[in-house]
Write a structure and sequence with these properties.
By secondary structure, this protein is of the alpha+beta class. Helix content is 30%, strand content 19%. It has an 8-stranded mixed beta sheet, with helices on one face. A 3-stranded antiparallel beta sheet has the order 8-7-10, with no helix packed on it. Helix 5 runs parallel beside helix 6. Bound molecules: succinic acid and fe (iii) ion. This is 3-deoxy-D-manno-octulosonic acid hydroxylase-like protein.
Length: 303
């Protein structure tokens, strides 16, 4: 498991470097910026941290949809309208700054990604009382129940905006190294039903229900959703898999393909995050993508 440290002083990097970073991310590395390249203005930071003292309805996980310029997760009936507007302005600006930075930093992807949600995570992560499948302190790969990606990759950029504390993660070995452990080798490479059988076998014996039906989802999306649930529900995997700890300091940033690097957040409070969906065509090593790995296992097209 690789963490690549990128000091701010080394940016912007020379031509060719961006491609290497894309390849490293696709191979499962975390790119770590000890000092964030997208700092917040001091007064905006103070505002976000101020959400701690109040018991306001801003005090939960809040999503920002950049393409619609909409906030969700805020109860606008009880939250102060000025505070909501301020939060929206901060999220809009954060989202823009991350995109501006990544246009150059991950140049080969530019034009090949779709901007997904950003989020503000003001809650203490340790001891959160959430249903098992929504817990983030269990190792998992990301898949969105209501936003199928059709083979696009989930790339996330994080800021630890806590003034002092680290945000503590545990990560595991990437998808392509662990999926074979669970996907039976004897699956017949036939187009119809092959993948359904793979998904069913993966789910059998560990209490997984039927795949959640969705017209918009491809077999790929179904599998990735099942795999997310499977990892969280698999006590043996949680206990025995290879684990690597990373404590991201206050003021740092990091980015990682969370659809293939199993991750869990154990402690920490106050983070910002921006998600990008990187189209399969934009990948620099498409042969290592989870879509290709799964199509190889299933012997069928999955999108
Ligand atoms: C997650 O994607 O599981 C959450 C990570 C975090 O909030 O640090
Ligand atoms: Fe996650």
């Amino acid at each position: 498991m690789k963490l690549i440290e990128i000091p701010l002083a080394t940016l912007p990097a020379g031509a060719g470097q961006a491609r290497e970073w894309c390849a490293a991310l696709e191979a499962g590395a975390i790119l770590f910026f000890p000092q964030t390249p997208v700092p917040l203005a001091a007064n905006d930071l103070q505002f976000l941290l101020g959400q701690q003292q109040t018991d306001s309805s801003l005090h939960k996980n809040i999503a920002y949809k950049p393409l619609a310029d909409k906030l969700s997760g805020v109860d606008t009936k009880t939250a102060d309208a000025a505070a909501v507007a301020r939060l929206q302005a901060i999220m809009r600006s954060y989202s823009k700054s991350v995109v501006e930075f990544l246009k150059g930093f991950l140049e080969p992807y530019h034009g090949g990604w779709q901007l997904d949600y950003a989020s503000f995570r003001p809650q203490e992560e340790q001891g959160r009382d959430l249903p098992l499948r929504r817990r983030n302190d269990l190792l998992h790969t990301d898949a969105f129940p209501t936003r199928p990606t059709h083979g696009a990759r989930i790339l996330r950029f994080f800021n630890n905006i806590h003034p002092e504390r680290t945000r503590d993660w545990v990560v595991g070995d990437p998808f392509r190294e662990i999926v074979g452990q669970f996907a039976p080798r004897q699956i017949a490479p036939q187009v119809d039903g092959a993948f359904t059988r793979l998904a069913k076998t993966l789910g059998s014996g560990i209490g997984l229900g039927a795949a959640v039906p969705s017209l918009k989802r491809t077999p790929y999306d179904d599998f990735m959703m099942r795999f997310h649930n499977f990892l969280k529900e698999n006590a043996e995997f949680q206990k025995d898999c290879a684990k690597y700890s990373f404590n991201f300091p206050a003021g740092s940033s990091w980015m990682v393909y969370t659809d293939t690097v199993p991750h869990a957040v154990l402690t920490g409070q106050y983070a910002l995050e921006q998600t990008l969906l990187v189209q399969h065509e934009a990948l620099v090593t498409p042969e290592t993508s989870p879509l290709n790995v799964l199509e190889g296992l299933a012997g069928a097209r999955l999108v």
